[in-house]
Amino acid sequence: MSRWRYSVASIGTLTLEFCDAALIGLSPVFGQVEELPDLPADHPVAQALVAYAAGDFEAYERCRRRLLLRVLGTPFQQQVCRALQEIPLGQIRSYGELASRLQNTPRAVGQACRRNPIAILIPCHRVLAKDGLGGYAGEREGAALSYKKLLLQHEGVWHGQA
């Protein structure tokens, strides 16, 4: 396994984890940045993140589809992550909608989203509570929720204050 750091101006510093060629972890850094080597700018994941940050969503989707992502988790977590990847950029879903589709409860879907190991590329930020943002990375306020708002605003689907 290898761990890397990558920073993109509009989406911040990210920690990435690879197992062989597969990306198994991508998470935003909310605090002190761990000393890690920088991911090379020509790496396919870096190219996808740069396109996303630049708002070139067409290039981002092309790059993202070519990435090897490996979700380590329970079969249900993997099922939720597959469903998350089907949410088109610029659209949102509720925990309830996903739960209905997956024949489970909104709470179970929320817990699986909380454990999403590959943020942004597996877009758990596109899933909202029926009455607002819901949570992000297990938090319902603070830096993590602000980050969810930032991603949704960047994609043009969040204009609220909650």
Task: Give me the secondary-structure topology.
Elements lengths: L1 E7 L3 E8 L2 E7 L15 H10 L3 H10 L8 H11 L7 E2 H8 L3 H9 L12 E2 L14 H12 L8
Parallel strand pairs: 4-5
Antiparallel strand pairs: 1-2, 2-3
Helix pairs in contact: 1-2, 4-5
Feature tags:
single chain; 162 residues; alpha+beta; three-stranded antiparallel beta sheet; two-stranded parallel sheet; 5 strands; 37% helix; 16% strand; globular
Structure in words:
With 162 residues, this protein is α+β, with helices and mostly antiparallel strands. It is 37% helix and 16% strand. The protein contains six helices and five strands. A three-stranded antiparallel β-sheet has the order 1-2-3, covered by helices on one side. A two-stranded parallel sheet has the order 4-5. A hairpin with a 2-residue loop joins β2 and β3 (22-28). The model has no long low-confidence stretch (mean pLDDT 94).
Gist?
The protein is an alpha+beta fold and 162 residues long. It has helices spanning 44-53, 57-66, 75-85, 95-102, 106-114, 143-154; strands spanning 2-8, 12-19, 22-28, 93-94, 127-128.
For the largest sheet, list the strands in their spatial order: 1-2-3
Radius of gyration: 15 Å
Main sheet specs: 3 strands, antiparallel
How many helices? The count is 6
What's the total count of β strands? 5
Low-confidence stretches: none
Average pLDDT, to the nearest integer? 94
Beta-strand content estimate: 15-25%
Helix-residue proportion: 25-40%
Helix and strand sequence: EEEHHHEHHEH
- The termini sit apart by 38 Å
- Shape summary: globular
Structure classification: alpha+beta
